[in-house]
Structure to design on (322 residues):
């Protein structure tokens, strides 16, 4: 759709340019015609860049968890910054719509957020804000209770709105709400990868299992990446992964992959207090280094080859890239 429009406007502009050019020659209007032709060339260059952006697949990763407070927002932000540090163009959508917190975590004060897109007053591109490290953020609406329970159509509206973005982008990270809320499930379904953040507490593990089960049975998602957070060491993280794997292997037909363990880190807490990301403020801290290792792993994940046939983020770019 998007591509067809571009092709059409490209052609018609080209036609216009030719006819205008010949007209200016005939009537001796070269002087006044020049800036016009220059603008067109500029426009054509922009379109070519947009076309290139549109044909570059975007890796879309949902960061989810069974229960709140396990570190999803910190994981989203620090993975984003670590990926950006490897040269990727990264954007985060704050989809914890009931309780926005990426802007709080990073000390940003956005004037606009996703609710302004839903109301139809702004385009998605107008609400994007710049965060440190070159990461772009789409802020969630804070304190608007309606946002906590979006209708299916509103969810689909947000997912489709990404199709209009002309930005150069390699990775989109969705910081979802905790649990199995309708909007969480639909954002996970519309992503290509789902990271489940867990920490070593019985409720975190059982809730993570419940989330995986719902996403698998109801949405057909069968691959999950497990990230153990607040682990004391790598072994504890691996053991935690082992515990989840044991139950999923027994009851579900899913493939689970261990993305890594982020240690419990006092520097992360210090960074949160300063309203900064630990990867930015304390890049040599244990957690920042673990985020960086996880980002390197993510860079090695295979890119999706084709559209899944359901509602997906950036489905146009996936189709155009083939
Ligand atoms: N690796 C970690 N080490 C120490 N504290 C952490 C770590 N990850 C998260 N936290 C703490 O947990 C709190 C909740 O994290 P947050 O990312 O907001 O969770 P969620 O988005 O899942 O609700 C943070 O304010 C931070 O203090
Ligand atoms: Mg959060």
């Amino acid at each position: 759709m998007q591509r067809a429009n571009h092709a059409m406007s490209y052609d018609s502009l080209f036609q216009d340019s030719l006819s205008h050019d010949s007209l200016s020659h005939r009537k001796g209007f070269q002087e006044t015609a020049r800036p016009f032709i220059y603008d067109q060339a500029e426009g054509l260059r922009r379109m070519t860049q947009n076309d290139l952006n549109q044909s570059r697949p975007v890796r879309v990763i949902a960061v989810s968890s069974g229960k709140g407070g396990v570190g999803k927002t910190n994981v989203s932000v620090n993975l984003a910054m670590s990926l950006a540090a490897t040269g990727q163009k990264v954007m985060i959508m704050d989809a914890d719509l009931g309780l926005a917190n990426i802007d709080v975590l990073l000390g940003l004060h956005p004037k606009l957020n996703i609710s302004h897109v839903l109301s139809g007053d702004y385009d998605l591109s107008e609400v994007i804000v710049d965060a440190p490290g070159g990461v772009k953020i789409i802020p969630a609406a804070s304190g608007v209770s309606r946002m906590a329970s979006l209708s299916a159509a509103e969810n689909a509206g947000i997912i489709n709105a990404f199709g209009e973005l002309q930005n150069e982008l390699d990775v989109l990270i969705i910081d979802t709400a905790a649990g199995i809320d309708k909007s969480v499930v639909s954002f996970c379904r519309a992503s290509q990868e789902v990271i489940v953040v867990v920490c070593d507490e019985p409720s975190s593990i059982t809730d993570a299992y419940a989330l995986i089960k719902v996403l698998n049975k109801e949405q057909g998602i069968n691959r999950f990446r497990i990230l153990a957070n607040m682990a004391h060491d790598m072994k504890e993280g691996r053991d935690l992964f082992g515990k989840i794997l044991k139950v999923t292997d027994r009851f579900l037909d899913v493939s689970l992959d261990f993305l890594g363990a982020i240690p419990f880190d006092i520097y992360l807490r210090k960074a949160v207090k300063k309203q900064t990301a630990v990867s930015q403020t304390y890049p040599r801290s244990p957690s920042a280094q673990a985020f960086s290792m996880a980002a390197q792993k993510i860079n090695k994940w295979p890119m999706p080859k084709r559209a899944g046939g359901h509602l997906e983020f950036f489905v146009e770019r996936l189709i155009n890239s083939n």
